[in-house]
Amino acid sequence: MSVRGLATAPVALAMAASLSLIGCSSGPTGARYAGCAEPMAEQREAALPADLPLIEDVELTDVTRREGFVAVSAVAAGRTVDDLYGPLVEAVSAEGFDLLGQENEGFEAEVYFARRTEVAGIASLRRGPCPGQVTVSIMYDPLETDRGKQATQRVRKASAPDG
Fold this sequence. Notes:
Elements: H1 3-19, E1 59-66, E2 69-77, H2 81-94, E3 98-104, E4 108-115, E5 119-127, E6 133-141, H3 146-159
Antiparallel strand pairs: 1-2, 2-6, 3-4, 4-5, 5-6
Helix pairs in contact: 1-3
């Protein structure tokens, strides 16, 4: 595993654990699909940070703010992880974030991003859990503590090409 993988592994593990709780917005019913989520009410979108890198044509299913962090969950129907990966990378760059690391395995993908020492986050794509849908998750941290800022500086240094 590379230094970049070691530095981002805890964040990836936390994201993977949270993804098991996120579902799809519509589709078949029954015990197999009991974990599928419904789109959230539009008024919850007001909780989104203005510079959050979102992909077009996804349905938001949850926005949670806790201790400075923002966690966003969404689903995209009729699209694949590969379909959404390029637009996700473009959305992150368009919001002025630096790409600290990225990976696309076809069934799942992650993009790690930061802006100086002000904001850091991870955006991930996962196939399913409902048929024909991709779950989109974004963890956004405004780095309000010195500890968070220092951790981001270490990841940035470890992920540099000459790092």
